[in-house]
Amino acid sequence: MATDGALSAFVPGHVTVFFAPCRRDEPARTGSVGAGLTLDDGVSVAVEPADRTVVTLNGEPIEMEPVDRVLSNLGVPSHVSTTTSLALGAGFGVSGAVTLGAAVTANHVTGGLRSENALVRAAHEAEVQSDTGLGDVVAQARGGLPIRLKPGAPPHGALDGIPASARIEYVAFGGLSTSEVITGDTDELVSAGERALSDLRERPTLARLFELGRRFAREAGLFTPRVEEAVGAVQAAGGEATMAMLGETVVALGTGLTDAGYDAAACQTHPSGVRLNLP
Amino acid sequence: MATDGALSAFVPGHVTVFFAPCRRDEPARTGSVGAGLTLDDGVSVAVEPADRTVVTLNGEPIEMEPVDRVLSNLGVPSHVSTTTSLALGAGFGVSGAVTLGAAVTANHVTGGLRSENALVRAAHEAEVQSDTGLGDVVAQARGGLPIRLKPGAPPHGALDGIPASARIEYVAFGGLSTSEVITGDTDELVSAGERALSDLRERPTLARLFELGRRFAREAGLFTPRVEEAVGAVQAAGGEATMAMLGETVVALGTGLTDAGYDAAACQTHPSGVRLNLP
User: Fold this and answer.
1) Nearest beta carbon to residue A112 from set B164, B167, B272
2) What is the value of pTM for the model shown?
3) Complex ipTM, two decimals?
4) What residues in A contact B199, CB-CB < 8 Å?
5) What does the pLDDT look like over B200-212, one tens digit per residue?
6) Is-contact B228 B220, C-beta < 8 A?
7) What is the pLDDT of residues B32-52, one digit of tens each?
8) B45: buried, middle or exposed (CB in 10 Å: 19+, 13-18, 0-12)?
9) Chain A: closest CA distance from residue B218 (Å)
């Protein structure tokens, strides 16, 4: 997985089910409220200090602005070698995973002078400043089924969780631009997301999360035809499914997509956040 | 492990390395600051609703006041069947683990109407009201190497972490009463604990955690002769060791106790907090 001899971290994938963006002057106070699922299909991130930052994804060079930013802010330009089975830009939080994994691993390589909160904050700020994400990093630092109660990184943000774990299936039809949705007119999105959060807090269960995700996608006008069709097919087969924010991706509980006749990938929710691999 | 057919949770062990108790009127605001290690040697907790709460530990009936309390507060009296290789009253947070595991599992059995934060809070309050612990529950809900920045349960407490993982060895010589130490005169303890926290935040590394633990134990007058001897022997052999708060227990990094000639148990730090076992 990792480059030979390089230190590495594993970061879970993260699917946001609903959200409301929240912009402030400071990047650490900017973020989103909402809820989602962390997945044990994630990203392995290996780091070796280098003259300048170069990122590879499954062996291919790739531009990842937030990774450049966070390693520059930490003062550790590096060769960042990442492997994942998750699609980029399809709502799995790959960008946040690489950014957070690079920060945690680079910190360790250079003597470990920052705390976990400081590293989460640095990665979150880099994502916000690059317009690549608003909530993945704090969720991927926590693991489980994160509820984002207050936006932003530590010490500003606040999280809770749904006390459950589950098998999750997913199908990615294609990408959607996070940056276009979260920088455009967001009034509808914000009110739909805040309503969903309030309703989830009344009854924080997995079934309710999926139900509120569908309502949010509909109210915010984010369903695409093939996502809506697949979600409907899973429900018709007696299952629970919703859309990943933001990708043309459907996630389902248990065997929901398979039962509806889709060729789906399967994983489990992930019990923990980012972790360094033991040497 | 668990009773056949009962739902179960795993809760990591937790060793506090240093702490400062902090009492307020509300149990949810009462707690401790400090730092420690969660361990993958933990407690498996299975729950079946019953007419009244009965707790067994490795098959033997046992009185655990905070478990009675939390299940009474949640309205789910249960048969709680727990298994662990950890010694009770020796500084591994067994009482907090059973209380938190019972809360999370009982919630699931009854439809899962509470969030993770609400369950952590209920378990923390039960420990505080029973004088059995001030910081284990919030650490065991988080996992990793928790730093308790602000005392209390969500939403009052605040946590950070040391971004590391390690093999840990331990030897338990005997028990110390948590309740006697945390309800007695605590001025020395508080100032030593707060100083250690401040110094750890300057440099949040594993080696520093152990160094500050030794300083805290010495300043707070908590070392017993055989603990001090074992810690000294590990250091003389080139290792890192300190005392578990509160037990007559020594924890060491890596193979520290074995290298010093002790017959020690070994485990790893645990990446996550309490989790329900998948059915």
Assistant:
1) B164
2) 0.94
3) 0.92
4) none
5) 999 999 999 999 9
6) no
7) 999 999 999 999 999 999 999
8) buried
9) 25
Mutate to test the interface with B, among A8, A11, A109, A116 (most CBs of B within 10 A): A116
CA–CA distances in Å: residue A271 to residues A46, A219, B153, B222: 21, 31, 20, 35
Distance from CA of A145 to the nearest CA of B (A): 10
Tokens in use for A120?
Answer: 């989460």
CB B145 within 8 A of CB B14: no
CA distance A27 to chain B (A): 20
Query: What type of residue sits at position A160?
Result: D
Residue whose structure tokens are 């605040």: B158
Hey, CA dihedral for B171, B175, B179, B180, is it positive or negative?
Answer: negative
> Is residue A268 within a helix (H) or strand (E), and if so which, with residue range?
strand A265-268
Contact between chains at A116 and B155 (C-beta distance less than 8 A)? no
